[in-house]
Amino acid sequence: MTTYSDKIVWITGASSGIGEALAKTFAANGADIILSGRRVDALQAVADQLPTETLVLPFEVTDYSELEAIVAKAWDWKGRVDVLVNNAGVSQRSLAIHTTPQVYTDLINIDLIAPIWLTQLQLPRMVEAGGAHIIAISSVAGRFGPPLRTAYAAAKHGLIGYMDALRTEVSARHNINVTNVLPGSVATNVSRNAFTASGSIRGKSDSAIEGGDDPMDCAKAILEAVDSNVPELIFASGMELDLAKLRHSDPEKLFELGSQFGAQIAEQYESGDDS
After folding, report:
1. Which is catalytic among the residues 4, 104, 152, 162?
2. Angle CA 221–82–212, to nearest 5
3. Is the alpha carbon torsion for 253, 244, 115, 123 positive or negative?
4. pLDDT for position 120
5. How many CB atoms lie within 10 A of CB 81?
6. What is the predicted pLDDT for the residue at 275?
7. Can you give the residue ranges of every domain in the chain?
């Protein structure tokens, strides 16, 4: 595995889950880490566990008026950012028919517009520095549209599209590599922190996430993908992996299966069972 002893890695959503696991994995391989999120105490708790230098840089990803200053602070710390991990995000658990339009606005702001802003503000610096690597944590929901996640799927499809198009412009010409990561069920707080139909926080997990893959295994796979400059990593198994592959190999079958599964989930939710 590549050593990162002379690299600066900036991770958003770094206080838990995949972000925390990536901080530990990159730091174990020598990288200095910029930890970003909203909760200073949680970020500091992660920083205290890392063997390398850290900068705790809290901010709200949708506070666009402050992002330029935040980017300046990050780059001023060590003079560069070698790896940017756009990981901060929120999920959703609600039927579209009951979901308020504001939920779509808020979720797409967090999961799509914010990482675009953070990336765009750094592209000129990355070009001047001679290159970088951008990692976007999307989802298998960005490859197929699962039920209860219409806003989330829209944002994650959009993030993949932005990053794929960006790669065509900056990879060969400016040595800025781009890796999209599409996790399936990983054992994090993603379901517990998901938006409901009204925009409130769900406050409980679900069985698929609770039984999901270890975030550290996901982080290790991401590091291997970055080492090999893989454009897209699908970190999933079982049905989630099969459905992601069907998007290209047999989209009609994917849509048929999705409709059948979605009808079952909708009936379950309408009956009051949101487990």
Report:
1. 152
2. 25
3. negative
4. 98
5. 22
6. 65
7. 8-238
Q: How is residue 219 written in tokens?
A: 């982080």
Question: What's the confidence (pLDDT) of residue 265?
Answer: 84
Residues counted in the chain: 275
The answer to whether 152 is a known catalytic residue is yes
For the chain, 275 residues long, the average pLDDT of each consecutive 10-residue run is: 90 98 98 98 98 98 97 98 98 97 98 98 98 98 95 98 98 98 96 96 92 96 97 95 90 88 85 74
CA-based torsion, 117, 43, 91, 196: positive or negative = negative
CA distance 53 to 152: 34
Q: How many CB atoms lie within 10 A of CB 36?
A: 26
User: What backbone phi and psi angles, to 5 degrees, belong to 85?
Assistant: -110, 105
The residue type found at 72 is A
* Closest to 102 measured CA to CA, from 201, 199, 202: 199
First to last CA, the chain: 40
DSSP letters, 49-94, are T-SS-EEE----TT-HHHHHHHHHHHHHHHS--SEEEE-----B-S
Q: Which CATH class is domain 8-238?
A: alpha beta
**Nearest Cα residue to 19 out of 3, 36, 5:** 36
Question: Rounded to an integer, what distance in angstroms lies between the CA atom of residue 117 and that of residue 237?
Answer: 32
Residue 128, class by beta-carbon neighbours within 10 Å (0-12 exposed, 13-18 middle, 19+ buried)? exposed
Q: Are 43 and 19 in contact (CB under 8 A)?
A: no
- Please give the Cα distance from 234 to 220 (Å, whole number): 13
Contact 188, 17 (CB under 8 A): yes
Of 264, 205, 213, which is closest to residue 238 (Cα–Cα)?
213
